[in-house]
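Researcher: Go.
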Amino acid sequence: MPFRSNLIYRHGITAGFIGATAVAAWFLIVDTIAGRPLFTPSLLGHSLISAFDRSQTVAGDSEPLTILIYTLFHYGAFSIAGIIVTLMVQLAESQPSILGGFFILFIAFELGFQGLVAMLQHSTALGALAWYQIMLGNIIASLAMGTYIWRTHPELREGVRHALDGVGE
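Model: Structure:
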């Protein structure tokens, strides 16, 4: 399939929305079980706003606005990640070895992200979130996004098969 940016954006944004929704649903379940629905997006929204506006005048005391701001950021970040993943898949059609490098990069990013979360838990309000809940949310999002990408890019199967040729011989 030729390189088409409209498909990259469409599939990437869709994958991002799937991943963001999976994480949002995960934390809604976790927060509801803990008896405090929407705690996570509220906490992360306050943290996000305070990172950019120390006076917190953007959302003030409006919890719904804080949650909305975080939700927009959350979906935007996942959409960018989805576009990057889709671009890598598209590039792997002509250069299957990219998949191996992308997989290593993905693992390194996840480890770095978990390290950052662990570090921030000791020095910020994020300590109220358990690292394993965040890790499970990332795994759920990765599986959901990966399943979508796998199903919408049948050429990916052949690329993976080709990239693994000779492995273990």
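Model: The chain is about 75% helix and 0% strand.
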